[in-house]
Specification:
alpha/beta, 3-stranded parallel beta sheet, globular
Length: 379
């Protein structure tokens, strides 16, 4: 069996198939899986944004690329180019007693990597960059952080914006000075300091994200913010009762009221609490949010890299799991078969076609909806 890491060889003819073609085409030569001309064309012509996807979960490899960008090759880039994804939001969780320095090092590392690989990548800093990256043939990198603990003062918001940060999740899973995370024992909502941070983020044009926030902290953010608040990567708790990383209906309705967007993840234990868990279960979350607040408020925040968590080295996978509370509900697998490989956006597009969404609606889910709301926030 060929490893999923060998998905690089795509069918160039299939990717270039015009919309008028009918039938199905292979995207990689070693499998019998085929995609419809409609799905291939939709991914090709849409702006495809994954609002939570590190470019690799192989952290030693990423450290090597950051330190020596010249080691990132054209062969490495082909994997990202052929994925169909135009923009990766690469936020990670930082925090702890040295949150400021750790976050600074994370962003500085990315800035160094992007400066040394500008033939392949460009940083997404403004609304105008959405069209520029689509027309450039490069891959866009949106710098975000899954915690705001590095904002020790209001001036830090401006400082990190100047370094390139464009999205900041208010809390990770635990409590900080701003508010409460989703796995905290209690959630008292956003603090007075947190209100000031949200107001400062609004002023500089940095997007507020509440994906890992507790329910009250999430709702407070929508109440306080003068700009739309994002849920970049989460799922509907109604379909997975009791999971703290999923959002209740009240938060989903707040997304719609704010004119914002909720990105749906493909993380197995966020999608469903029992087996079997399939791509159809993940698609149910897209349907649920769309029926409640409209498909124009739905996007993609996969919360995996192109290969998935289950392809991590065993020790790295073990270390990852150990960093979360039992309420996360890890099972044997973290990924979902069918959307755990570098061409998952094609499988998702096929799924949305099966669910009878129109081309315009699917293009919105693939990235147009996040483009719209971020263009409103980044001003």
């Amino acid at each position: 069996m060929t490893s999923r890491r060998h998905f690089l060889a795509a069918s160039a003819a299939a990717i270039g198939a015009p919309a008028v073609l009918r039938g199905r085409f292979p995207l990689f030569p070693w499998t019998s899986v085929e995609y419809s001309a409609r799905a291939i064309d939709l991914v090709k012509r849409s702006l495809v944004v994954d609002m939570l996807s590190p470019i690799t979960l192989n952290f030693p490899l990423m450290a090597k690329w950051s330190a020596s960008p010249e080691t990132f090759t054209a062969t490495d880039f082909e994997k990202y180019r052929s994925s169909g994804i135009n923009i990766f939001h690469i936020a990670v969780g930082t925090g702890g007693p040295d949150a400021w320095q750790g976050t600074y090092d994370f962003i500085a590392g990315w800035d160094s990597f992007l400066a040394g690989t500008d033939q392949y990548f460009m940083r997404i800093d403004s609304a105008g960059d959405f069209d520029r990256v689509k027309n450039s043939g490069k891959i866009g990198i949106m710098i975000g952080v899954q915690n705001s603990e590095h904002f020790r003062t209001l001036k830090d918001v401006e400082h990190f914006y100047g370094l390139g940060q464009r999205v900041s999740q208010l809390t990770y899973n635990s409590r900080n000075m701003i508010g409460n995370g989703s796995t905290e024992r209690r959630d008292e909502g956003i603090s007075d300091y947190g209100v000031a941070i949200v107001e400062k983020m609004n002023a500089v044009g940095m997007a507020v994200d509440v994906s890992h926030c507790g329910d009250k902290t999430s709702l407070d953010a929508f109440e306080v913010s003068k700009k739309p608040v994002l849920v970049t990567h989460s799922n509907a708790r109604a379909l997975n009762p009791g999971h703290p990383r999923c959002k209740p209906d009240e938060v989903i309705r707040a997304v719609g009221k704010a004119g914002s967007v909720m990105g749906i993840t493909g993380v197995r234990m966020f999608v469903k609490g029992s087996e079997p868990t399939t791509i159809e279960d993940a698609l149910n979350h897209f349907d649920y949010v769309a029926k409640m607040i409209g498909i124009e408020h739905v996007g993609v925040g996969s919360d995996i890299d192109l290969d998935g968590y289950d392809d991590m080295a065993p020790e790295e996978n073990k270390r990852l799991r150990a960093g979360y509370k039992g309420s996360y509900g890890f099972r044997e697998k973290i990924d979902i078969e069918g959307i755990d490989h570098p061409k998952r956006m094609y499988d998702l597009t096929e799924g949305l076609i099966r669910r009878k969404y129109s081309d315009d609606q699917i293009a919105g889910v693939l990235g147009g909806n996040f483009k719209r709301v971020l263009s409103q926030i980044w001003v």
